[in-house]
TrEMBL record:
It comes from Roseospira visakhapatnamensis. This is Putative phage-associated protein. Residues 170-193 are annotated as: Disordered.
Amino acid sequence: MTRAPLTDSAFDAAFWLLDRALEDNEYLNPRKLHRLLYLAQAYFAVSQSGRALMPATFVADPDGPLEPTLFRAFAYSRPRVDVQPIDEAGTQLLDSIWRRFGAHSTDHLTKTVKRHPPYADAFRAGPRAVITVEAMVAFYGRPRRRPEEGIGILTDSGAPAIDQVLRPRVMRSQSGKPVNVHQWRPRSLKDKG
């Protein structure tokens, strides 16, 4: 059974990232926006057992992963679109993506993500082939064999594990002390062996 995406539209996540960049006095160019949205879709699906963040189809464009509908809508300027607020799980993920990957250059994000299997396999199938959410989850959600694999930045062979990307929520204990909490994600039977 396929679960509905968290947001009503990919515009909701795109505008959230654009507004966040403006808050930080940064210009978020279209290429970088698409790379961040792609990573957001991938890591949200990993954290939510395959559920998509947004109803979006990413394709393996020669320039890197992109969402064609957003690409056309933003071709000349920021489109006038009514966006809906995103619930806490989505904003926590988008904030984590921005904090983890937003400082990387567009070229670094593009070169690195193009070498990752979800994009590379789709591109080998043909330019503008669909990058499936399942392929994203298989790569970005795979268990790390060595502790150093994928830590810190995106590399050609790996990506940070979800617990290194998703910032923990800060809540208060019964005594009022701040504590970090993560969503519980049980390991699959495949991971245990």
